[in-house]
User: Fold these one by one.
Assistant:
Number 1:
Amino acid sequence: MTATDPAPTALAQGWCALSLLHGRIEAHIERALQAGHDLSVREYSLLDVLSRQHDGEGGHLQMKQVADAVVLSQSATTRLVTRLEERGLLERYLCPTDRRGIYTNVTEAGLLLLEEARPTNDTALREALDEAARNPELAPLVHAVESLHVSA
């Protein structure tokens, strides 16, 4: 098989199907969150990740950990945090044990918006998965997603 061979490999076809499923789901959720709550998928994800922080050992995430959790670069995550901070949804503060560290918390307004948006996110996700399940190429991937039991 050469690079110009029109027959894609099974691996490439699987990757394309997974990418297609992800894109469709994200676009559907994006439209729903924007329309209902003026939030992007990334903004919602960031609020969700940061809302799960807790006091105690390992409870607060460093910016690199946050970036990894929302699948963005550190610089893109910092810009996103700044935008949400300007909207009053997040606040930053210095780490009490390491003055070089900066943590980010979700404000009360951010928690309220997140709780209001969570049903929209969940409904849009369900709708997107149900729609994708009707496509024979995507149905096995939908089944795989639905059968995953991943801890947050």
Number 2:
Amino acid sequence: MADAPQISAPGRVELDDLDRQIVTILHENARIPNVELAREVGISPSTCLARVRSLRERGVIVRYTAEINPVALGFTLQALVSVRIRPGARHLMEQISDELRREPEVAQLFFLGGTEDFLIHVRVRDSEHVRQFVLKNLSANPAVALTETNLVFEHHTALSAGLRAVI
């Protein structure tokens, strides 16, 4: 049975240096074979497997995924759409969020504190596709007060995804 996570702050799981090494390597290459991962961090494969299992159980590793090139699938345009909800419709925020997350064009959805309520990262075929997305999913919704669409000319995923500073 795995030990209970050591928590220093709400939601934060304490990691030792070996855990940090494993997370860093898996973040770069989630498909690395366990034997190779064990060799890179200097432990036995069985210990490495137990460490990775513990990281999953403690909620550090949430899932493994493949990064897909949207252009290869015909999605040649990306846009960031900011959305402001009408003050009288704030009670619909969760419903709107759930509906937007189901749309196939939505790559990421951010719930914001500030002037805008949502920032939606969409991947689409062309400018007409983004227009139709905004009209169908946002402008037609009476709860939406304002949208602003910005086209993305280039998109780069950070190599560390912002995690290196804290790992």
Number 3:
Amino acid sequence: MSRGNTGVTAQAVHAEACPVREVLDRVAGKWSVQILVAAAHGPIRFTELERSIDGISRRMLTLTLRNLERDGLVTRTVHPTVPPKVEYELTTVACELHVTLLSLTDWAERHRVTIAESRAAYDDRHRPEPLDA
């Protein structure tokens, strides 16, 4: 019988992990990752982001950009032209995050076939038995 860690409560774990989880949820979100990757090469306009990210709605792009700006990962610059030109750019913190995202996407690319094979094997092992009619 193993000894449990009696010094740790669920509340203590939640209190410590919650802020980290909140940050990870934001930066690892489906749209956040794609925006950060798209904006990594310098200032990018809203319409360029919209065209480069398949499936994102204007509303979701706006909300995600606003949250990334609020979190200090993206800066929004409005140029005083007619019509106004708005550009988004990664902050220094987001550039550091981009390096990490590149490592993660590189890992995913290297292992995607292995993962697909593992999924297929798992599904084969756990496929329900056919019902006889």
